[in-house]
Amino acid sequence: xxxxxxxxxxxxxxxxxxxxxxxxxxxxxxxxxxxxxxxxxxxxxxxxxxxxxxxxxxxxxxxxxxxxxxxxxxxxxxxxxxxxxxxxxxxxxxxxxxxxxxxxxxxxxxxxxxxxxxxxxxxxxxxxxxxxxxxxxxxxxxxxxxxxxxxxxxxxxxxxxxxxxxxxxxxxxxxxxxxxxxxxxxxxxxxxxxxxxxxxxxxxxxxxxxxxxxxxxxxxxxxxxxxxxxxx
Amino acid sequence: xxxxxxxxxxxxxxxxxxxxxxxxxxxxxxxxxxxxxxxxxxxxxxxxxxxxxxxxxxxxxxxxxxxxxxxxxxxxxxxxxxxxxxxxxxxxxxxxxxxxxxxxxxxxxxxxxxxxxxxxxxxxxxxxxxxxxxxxxxxxxxxxxxxxxxxxxxxxxxxxxxxxxxxxxxxxxxxxxxxxxxxxxxxxxxxxxxxxxxxxxxxxxxxxxxxxxxxxxxxxxxxxxxxxxxxx
Lengths: 232, 232
Hints:
2 copies of one chain form a homodimer. By secondary structure, the first copy, chain A, is an alpha/beta fold. The first copy, chain A, is built from 7 helices and 11 strands.
């Protein structure tokens, strides 16, 4: 008998909850797996969707992850200034088989020094900023570089998790979960990426400008710390 | 100035959390909208994915919903024997502009007497059982009959919510949310429905048999109450 595979996802205030809950739904259907949500303390953590989720473990008590996952959202950028959270991510990553993120969770991996020279993706609006942390930004719904899997924005987390499931458990298990989740998506519009025919070009421009204006200083500060070794 | 549109979703133990969190993510990006999660009490509600979500309102304190949404999961069938929950759904539905469900949440609408003669869908594994509650089961990722919108299994909730957003707020708003959520799905397999080329036929048969064995008695009991008028 082998130990169950341990999935540890980071939870934080103002997480884009679907970044987290999409993959965690997939993880919860994996055979012989345990999925935890980690935060500083066991307390309700408010998501950006207006409701709170409870962590299952603290950073101190979390088991060593086989798969570490960091979701995104506006709150992910607060973690770039949270030395304890970055240290947790760095320690966990050192012992994990897979180090993963969804959406702007990639910036947390980057700030923890885990994306240097690695191909990675993130939400399209923040994609250009990923380079600041030493990553090689690559467009793709799911990007794999060695043991680092990064997903694009929000809903890409479902595709990411199914791909990871296929990698670890084999295609049959992943296919079976996809069937159970009735994942035969039928979006009402062809508008899910900046290049989609029905995407709103003005919105794309505004969103990228907004991400740059609100996030660039935080990301550059995290990059400076990485170079200076302050965060090690 | 008009009042914000009110979305009220039912939360319950053993909810399939992605049934709930997919649509609620979409709702949270709608302009001038408030989204609540309702349960008997304000207490952590364990989902089937191993973590708990906090309700934002109780059944007693919930505002009248403009949009009522009931997600599914194994716990949805417990609500069929919960007269207070069914009464909440029935009262809310009477004043709501839209009455909606995702996955096996349709059985809760049905047990509340809201699907009589209505075309509706649910998760494929339980689809045949929907007839027991007087609904006209229709295959479809999202089925609309008048002001009743029902979604199929789990991930169909995202498509359902975007379609509802388009209906209420117009295509531009829904398209813009789809872009923000980077919803350009790329499932790893063509295995998301029982009829998909890569679906596992044996699993389909097992799942339907399992749903029938574990759920039929509960659904028939709810149907008997409906006919008897006990639950009115």
